[in-house]
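Lecture 7 notes: from sequence to structure.
We start with the chain below.
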Amino acid sequence: MNLHRKGRAALVLALVAVVAMAFRVSWNALRDIANAVGADNTAATLYPFVVDGLMALALVATLVLTDKARDFALRVLGAYTLASLVLNYVHGLVPKLHDAQLDWTRLADWDPANWALVLLATSLPVGSIYFGSDLVAKVLHHRPDPIPAPDANAEKSTEITRNRSTADLAVSTPASAPAALLPMPDPVTVDFLKSTQLAKPTPTPERAPVAAIEHRPVAAESTRPRRATGRVPEVARSARPRRTKDQLTDEARAATADWTDGQITAEGIRRAVHTSPVNARMLRDALLTERAANTV
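Predicted structure tokens for the same chain:
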């Protein structure tokens, strides 16, 4: 593992060295091109960083971005690589560009070609600002897709399939048809069936072994007294004297003395004298009968 890391580090260092030397060769040509289109010494010195520097930025963006953003970074890288190649080629074709004291000159003798080359050289810095800002924004806002974990789902589905047995199926064997719906065989068919051999019975599949019941520890019973819940036993109830029918009638008559006939109901009497629903209905009928007799 350590040797593998050292090899990768050596490869990266070699790549950086090659890129640095190639940039130095291209830097000379691009600086002269910048001087030829009217740039001063400072601008001509920085001009190669504008062109070849954006190429390096676009290369890094292609390693980070994906999908359409990565295609955009590749197009920017290809366009600036082609532009740098054209300007280096023009630098080699025009001997006047090699003069160290050159301030301004034509890049080509043919006017349309000279105009196109000047437009290309002067548009590269503006394009570096636009494309460089766009690439940096895409890299900063890029969110890599999360890596799914298929192993957990696979183990879960395998476990479910393994634990299922034939005993868990809703219907293990198809239901037999009622005897009334079966056709009655004719004599010829009966003789034919008797002469033929019985088919070999199909073996019944063995059921999956049932795991032993696991004995789990049971919590010890608490010694704290618990509050009584539910129905209270008859023995625990407080003794209450039972009232006779005459006593209930007197209490109901006194409670409903100022009631109208419509107000005398079993529910109202039950609440007034605190008796059972059966006694309340009996008292209601008795009171209504007394009132009817008194009215007559």
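Points to note: The first helix runs from residue 2 to 36. The two ends are 118 Å apart (CA to CA).
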